[in-house]
Amino acid sequence: MALNSDEVRKIAHLARLAINDADIPEYARNLSNILGLVEQMSAINTQGVAPMAHPLDVSQRLREDQVSESNQREHFQQIAPQVEAGLYLVPKVIE
Predict the structure, then answer these.
(1) For residue 17, what is the domain's CATH number?
(2) What is the per-residue pLDDT across 17-38, written as a single tens digit (0 to 9) for each?
(3) Which of 22, 59, 83, 95 is the most exposed place for a label (fewest CB within 10 A)?
(4) What's the burial of 8, exposed, middle or buried (CB within 10 Å: 0-12/13-18/19+)?
């Protein structure tokens, strides 16, 4: 699929990108190549191929959740500017 200059300008406008007129032919060629690759990939028969989350057959090692620090809530709230009912009070920023 070959893109023309007007289509590249429209795509740039939709993407809110400013591009130079001198660069449009290169963008058109590159975008056309990408779309051509997508067309080739779409033409491949993938019936019976299971989707993969990762190309390698590996699983992530997980560790048990363990508490590594003591509860210091009271200490931190003592040095906070304003606290009420165990919550930090902050200035209103949205009217």
Answers:
(1) 1.10.20
(2) 999 999 999 999 999 999 999 9
(3) 95
(4) buried
